[in-house]
Design a protein that fits this description.
Blueprint (H helix, E strand, L loop, with lengths): L5 H13 L19 E3 L4 E3 L1 E2 L6 E7 L22 E3 L6 E2 L23 E2 L4 E6 L8 E7 L17 H4 L4 E5 L4 H5 L3 H6 L8 H16 L5 E11 L1 H11 L9 E5 L13 H14 L5 H6 L2 H5 L23 H6 L8 E6 L11 H6 L8 H24 L7 E6 L19 H4 L12 H20 L19 E5 L4 E4 L4 H12 L2
Parallel strand pairs: 2-5, 6-7, 9-10, 9-11, 11-12, 12-13, 13-14, 14-15
Antiparallel strand pairs: 1-2, 3-4, 4-8, 8-10, 15-16
């Protein structure tokens, strides 16, 4: 998006003055700066758009880093370029490079409201802000939401992440783009050699760190408090939050963290080492018939993303590079090196599968239903095992963390008569968290509206106070290893047991922990 010229700038300034909604620059008066359609960032002025009743102003497509193109492909994000005049921040800018799918139906529940619908580009390091602040001195807390998509797809511009409704509840909401797939996570010996930090991979996480630094430096101009920033995300976004919790580079950049479908005891000790990631990078270059890093950088991004026949099985994700990420999640917590902030985690009822053995003991603990349906017992075991997985991680975390922890279990299925089998599916909680039911054409009921209002309030309270509890809400108990419960969020709300009996708890715990 090119900066506007002098004539455009003059017109905008005239209009802004006419409607008397401008950023009042401090002069010789002591009046506080007003938050209006124009805000000054460190790179230049940006003009946002207010909603119909003027309660929230959205600033979209603000660059937080330089375009990672040409020689900056597979390099740490660089500071954003400055611009002259007023930058129009009324529309989303490009999402990061990915293969667009628009909709997963009928194979899955993710319709277009969950998908990227705008253009994609390597020039994509933008963030979007929704602020309800009236003046720069409001010092509101901020939620920074990191999108999911398996580190291969997604964007801060997706409909269900629209931040207006959450912002109406008194917080600033920010969504970000970050590099994904091979463009975001390629490790390669040549990349490691050219890096001043002797590291490669993790460019997508480094983008997220850069976004948090930008927010720390600029959010006060939008009425925010740089000392009250909560990071959150679902799926790959939750994995990103985990990486930021573990990363020394993110120290001091956030004050709270939420992982939705992304934190559990199982898998926390697994990590891809730099040498293994570099070997994958060499295989990828060979599949692309590129003999050097220079040849890879010269290839069009579309060719980089195109699947080569001998590229199958090569996946890209976070790397223990001893710079951005210094160890697997479990070992970082074992040594107490994590960024210790209040933490909330949970998962959805319909996204889990039972991964244990079906033994005689299993049938004793999970007897057949009256119609002799084995699957009923397996479903119940899967649900209890998933809750226990989150509980055991919180228990492990508590050994070195001194901050609050909260666990939820989301059970409300989006009403969808055509696809009842999807249930409370993976990512299905997001429209409720953002109070964004209006974004989906579904036969919503009063129950859904109530669930969305309460869930969004829990999230807003956590962002404000590091505690989801507040007036008019059922109590969400602080994690306590001696009290084996989690918070159910759905048509029914309240604390429920991790497992129905102590025998089931121990049976499943041994499966996960191994002793």
């Amino acid at each position: 998006m090119k900066p506007t010229g002098p004539e455009r700038q003059s017109n905008i300034n005239c209009i802004a003055m006419a409607i008397i909604v401008v950023l009042i620059l401090a002069s010789c008066t002591s009046k506080p700066k007003l938050i209006g359609p124009v805000v000054k960032t460190q790179s230049g002025l940006v003009q946002g758009v207010a909603n119909e009743n003027g309660t929230v102003i959205a600033f979209k497509g603000i660059p937080y880093a330089a375009p990672p193109v040409g020689g900056l492909r597979w390099k740490e994000p660089q500071p954003p370029l400055s611009w002259e005049g007023i930058r129009d921040a009324g529309e989303f800018c490009a999402s990061c490079m990915q293969i667009l799918r628009y909709s997963h139906l009928p194979g899955g529940p993710w319709t277009e409201e969950f998908m990227v619908l705008n253009e994609v580009s390597e020039d994509c390091l933008f963030l979007n802000i929704w602020t309800p602040a009236k003046k720069a001195t409001d010092k509101l807390a901020t939620l920074v939401y990191i999108h999911g998509g398996g580190f291969t797809e997604g964007s801060g511009a997706i409909d269900v992440y629209d931040g207006e409704e959450l912002a109406k509840k008194g917080i600033i909401v920010i969504t970000i783009n970050y590099r994904m797939g091979v463009l975001g996570f390629l490790a390669h010996p040549e990349l490691t050699a050219e890096s001043p930090n002797n590291a490669s991979g993790n460019y997508g996480i480094l983008d997220q760190v850069a976004a948090l630094r930008w927010i720390s430096d600029n959010i006060a101009a939008f009425g925010g408090d740089p000392g009250r920033v909560t990071i959150a995300g679902q799926s790959a976004g939750a994995m990103s939050v985990r990486a930021l919790i573990a990363s020394p580079l993110a120290k001091g950049l956030f004050s709270g963290a939420i992982t939705q479908s992304g934190s559990g005891y199982m898998g926390s000790g697994n990590a891809t080492r730099l040498s293994d990631a570099e070997a994958n990078g060499l295989k990828f270059a060979e599949a692309k018939r590129a003999s050097s890093l220079a040849e890879l950088r010269a290839m069009p991004a579309e060719d980089i993303l195109a699947q080569a026949p001998d590229q199958r099985g090569i996946r890209f994700g976070t790397v223990v590079d001893n710079y951005c990420i210094t160890g697997d999640y479990m070992s970082v917590f074992e040594t107490g090196e994590q960024n210790d902030t209040p933490f909330m985690t949970g998962l959805n009822e319909g996204e889990v599968r039972y991964g244990g053995e079906i033994t005689d003991e299993f049938y004793v603990l999970y007897p057949l239903s009256p119609d002799r349906d084995t699957l009923t017992g397996i479903t119940i075991a899967a649900q209890e095992r998933s809750r226990l997985n989150a509980f055991l991680w919180m228990e492990y975390r508590s050994k070195t963390s001194k901050t609050n922890g909260y666990i939820y279990y989301f059970t409300r299925a989006i009403p969808w008569p055509e696809y009842p089998q999807f249930g409370a599916f993976h990512t299905g909680e997001v429209p409720y968290v953002f109070n964004n039911l209006k974004m989906l054409d579904r036969p919503w009921t009063a129950v859904d509206s109530l669930v969305a209002d309460r869930m969004s309030s829990y999230w807003v309270n956590f962002v404000n106070n590091g505690d989801p509890n507040g007036a008019g809400l059922l109590q969400w108990k602080l994690f306590n290893s001696n009290e084996k419960v989690v918070m159910e969020l759905g048509e029914k709300m309240g604390m429920i047991p991790v497992a129905a009996t102590e025998e089931r708890y121990e049976f499943l715990r041994k499966q996960i922990v191994g002793n």
